[in-house]
Automatic annotation (TrEMBL):
GO terms under cellular component: cell outer membrane
Stated name of the protein: TonB-dependent receptor
Cell location: Cell outer membrane
Organism: Hymenobacter polaris
One GO term of the biological process aspect: siderophore transmembrane transport
InterPro entries from the UniProt entry: Beta-barrel_TonB_sf (IPR036942), CarboxyPept-like_regulatory (IPR008969), Plug_dom (IPR012910), Plug_dom_sf (IPR037066), TonB-dep_rcpt-like (IPR039426)
Pfam families attached to this UniProt entry: CarbopepD_reg_2, Plug
PROSITE patterns in the cross-refs: TONB_DEPENDENT_REC_3
Residue stretches making up the TonB-dependent receptor plug domain: 146-224
Length: 780
């Protein structure tokens, strides 16, 4: 024992003695990488030392980079896809700050760039299951009514599947729609849909980049089992005042950005609104005139650099949907987020970001008919404090560590009614909880071809008072209820979540990777629908509802093809084991069920598959071909006799093709093709009568399927030639959604055949055939 203490002390003294001398032979290069024309930071830009093979780094989410290398004379190069590379030759005798301002264009000026991610990054980094979208790509992809849609574009990638026609919900690698963490400037967005799922919450004019992690997510992310969608808003132009917008068939949008102080701070404000309700006012029908059907959203962001080491950011989002019928029915829902962030450089190696985050999602349903005057109200609200550090230990090692605490306020849904209503009011069952986490992540280039990313996340969840909670018997009947006072910690869960990823570079063009990740989830979405609806209910982990958990292992092969790395091939296979999954007892309805925990069942799940992605990122023709072969199943002792059954999001086959062709400087054409197995559903297999009423008898859970989903969309963009000396630019975008006119099923219902009561007929509802659209876009 004493020997070990003595040796440790000697090593410590030796490090203290030699540390300063060693530090004198090394120095740190740090700075930011920005767009020279707008001042926007370039997340993921590569900075490398030409003379040192394999020595380089990527700029973080705020454009900051740090490299520690031996003193000497070097050529430092910064590059980013779609920009001209920039080099600096310098003699390094001590730490220096070197900022880069890259000019758009370069050798790729006339080429369509699909992604802002360098092909080399997927070869050299250990991270698996990550995809990035560039907003130039999203602008070209044809979508419903011509509204650029981030979520719909993500579902064109392998492993990410839409929840169904007319839904913005999506499933990642067999997970449920609530197992995806969607962040807008670090603020959680709990419902990412407008107009019941036909459009997503995010106005593309406000977004800089989108990163999705399908598995093996870094340790700084947590709280969901399947994926993270990290969406970053643009900072705004800090050089000059600019505006942009668009006028479409169903919605219009406008954006304004400019400097607060030139070169030091900027602002961005965007707005979007539909105007279907304007046309309703023109109707001769009084009921139609008094109805409402619209959504709007507003984005705002501002930032200011006090000096080279301190910068403050503020960003916010406000969105609302309104669907009303002649003052007798109304449904209103929306999101609010606000993020205040402070960046500070403690040293050239230590970067800090402190965030204070607010997020709220709520919905309200109003019914005023005869004596039934009541409202149903539900909300989830978060207040989040988050601290992140990034420390560059050396040219081959980077540490990230931090902590966060989220205070949740959740109202699962309650009825508010006055004394004259025939509907009884229900108790407000608002609950409170505290979610905490601390993490440590280590990126290490162990050898020129070998990279590791390891991490550990400790997550905690505490149920807080005040609140009323029940206990149940095996049949779900309430045995007792207890009301707890404010200020008490009622129940606490702790979970360790290890993460590990490794990559080995077989050659300059090929890499193999492996990863493992464990995730825990303490917020759960309850829904009877096969798609995501705004009226679905969130419930927290409680005495009865346990934290969900998932373990995922992945293997992958990555290769660049062609002399200029024009193509990239990605093949990933995965297996995901899920625990404490939630389902419902047969016959459960969530409507009016305000003590829903008694109807819940708990089981396990498994999902596995293989994903293929072939991309072409450069040239006049760009796009990708994706294919997923997968399986997703669940097992509950009380369902299907305890046998495994298909999850509702199980789709064994999924094919997507995206193509964008720049025919001339004025015209570009695009198309997407999707084909997939239909969702798993449960059909009736018989019927019987109870008190003269016909009741359907349903077969095994999710043993049937909707018809296969097939859709072809096409689009064209015309860029009006820009006149020298004029700031006004404009373009037209034309598209046809579902060109083939295939009636993909939105739902299938069963009813008694009116001509023969002994028979049952199936009725399929389809939402769209061909939907043409045109949008006029402008900027100044």
């Amino acid at each position: 024992m004493h020997k070990h203490v003595l040796l440790t002390g000697l090593w410590l003294l030796l490090w203290l003695a030699l540390g300063p001398a060693a530090a004198q032979t090394r120095a740190t290069l740090s700075g930011t990488v920005q767009d020279a024309t707008s001042g926007e930071t370039l997340t993921g830009a590569t900075v490398r030392v030409r003379e040192l093979r394999g020595v380089g780094t990527g700029a973080n989410a705020y454009g900051f980079y740090s490299l520690t290398v031996p003193v000497g004379t070097y050529t430092l190069e910064a590059s980013f896809v779609g920009y001209a590379a920039q080099t600096r030759t310098l003699t390094l005798t001590g730490s220096q700050r070197v900022d880069f301002k890259l000019q758009p264009g370069g050798s790729q000026l006339n080429e369509v760039v699909v992604t802002g991610r360098s092909a080399d990054a997927n070869i050299s980094k250990a991270q698996m299951g990550v995809e990035q979208l560039d907003m130039k790509q999203v602008a070209k992809v044809p979508v419903l009514f011509g509204e650029r849609d981030i979520i719909k574009t993500l579902t064109l990638l392998p492993g990410i599947k839409t929840a169904g026609e007319g839904s913005s919900g999506f499933s990642v690698r067999g997970g449920a729609v609530d197992q995806n963490l969607i962040l807008l400037d670090e603020a959680p967005v709990y419902n990412a849909s407008h107009l019941l799922g036909f459009f997503s919450t995010f106005n593309a004019d406000a977004i800089k980049d989108v990163t999705v992690y399908k598995g093996g997510m870094p340790a700084q992310y947590g709280g969901r089992l399947s994926s993270v969608v990290d969406i970053r808003m643009r900072d705004g132009n800090n050089q000059a005042l600019h505006g942009s917008g668009g006028i479409g068939l169903i919605a219009s949008r406008l954006a304004l950005e400019g400097p607060i102080v030139k070169g030091k701070g900027s602002f961005l404000v965007t707005g979007r609104r539909t105007y279907a309700d304007v046309f309703l006012k023109l109707s001769r029908n009084e009921t139609t005139r008094n109805s409402s059907l619209y959504f709007y959203d507003l984005n705002a962001k501002a930032n200011y650099a006090f000096d080279a080491r301190n910068r403050l950011y503020f960003s916010g989002y406000l969105g609302r949907d309104a669907l009303g019928l002649n003052n007798t029915f109304g449904q209103y829902y929306g999101n609010k987020t606000a993020t205040l962030r402070y960046n500070h450089l403690f040293s050239d190696r230590l970067f800090s970001n402190t965030s204070l985050i607010f997020s709220k999602y709520d919905y309200e349903i109003d019914i005023a008919s005869n004596d039934q005057n009541f409202s149903i109200i539900s909300k989830i609200q978060d207040l989040n404090l988050k601290q992140d550090f990034e420390y560059t230990a050396s040219a081959t090692q980077t540490l990230r560590f931090g902590a966060q605490a989220i205070y949740h306020t959740i109202t699962p849904g309650h009825v508010v009614a006055d004394a004259s209503s025939s509907v009884n009011a229900t108790a407000d069952r608002t609950n409170y909880s505290l979610e905490t986490a601390a993490y440590l992540s280590h990126e290490w280039q162990a050898a020129p071809r070998l990279n590791f990313t390891s991490g550990l996340r400790l997550s905690g969840f505490s149920l807080l008072g005040p609140g009323t909670y029940s206990t149940y018997d095996a049949a779900g009947t309430v045995l007792s209820s207890t009301t707890y006072p404010s200020g008490q910690f009622l129940k606490t869960y702790l979970r360790l979540e290890p993460r590990l990823a490794a990559s080995y570079q077989l050659s300059e063009a090929a890499t193999v990777k492996a990863s493992y990740a464990r995730n825990a989830q303490n917020l759960h979405l309850l829904s009877n629908s096969s798609t995501s609806l705004p009226t679905d209910m969130y419930v927290p982990t409680t005495f009865n509802v346990q934290p969900e958990a998932a373990d995922q292992v992945s293997l992958g092969y990555y290769r660049t093809l062609g002399p200029d790395k024009t193509y990239t091939l990605t093949v990933e296979t995965y297996y995901k084991a899920l625990r404490n999954q939630i389902d419902y007892r047969d016959g459960t309805s969530l409507r009016g069920n305000f003590d829903v925990e008694g109807s819940l069942l708990y089981g396990r799940g498994r999902a596995y598959g293989i994903e293929f992605l072939l991309r072409k990122d450069l040239g006049r023709l760009t796009g990708w071909l994706g294919y997923t072969l997968s399986k997703s199943q669940r097992q509950f002792a009380e369902i299907n006799g305890g046998a495994w059954f298909n999850a509702r999001q199980d789709r064994p086959h999924d094919v997507s093709v995206v193509a964008i062709y720049q025919a001339t400087p004025k015209w570009s054409f695009s198309g997407t093709f999707l084909a997939s197995t239909g969702n798993a559903v449960t059909y009736p297999v018989g019927k019987y009568q109870v008190a003269g009423q016909v009741v359907s008898y349903y077969g095994a859970r999710n043993a049937d399927r909707l018809p296969a989903y097939v859709r072809l969309d096409v689009g064209a963009t015309y860029e009006k030639p820009h006149q020298e000396g004029h700031r006004w630019r404009s373009s037209w975008t034309f598209s046809v959604y579902n060109l083939l006119g295939r009636e993909n099923p939105y739902s299938i219902t069963f009813e008694t055949n009116p001509n023969d009561a002994s028979k049952t007929q199936a009725l399929q509802t389809a939402l769209f055939r061909q939907v043409p659209s045109a949008t006029y876009n402008f900027s100044f």
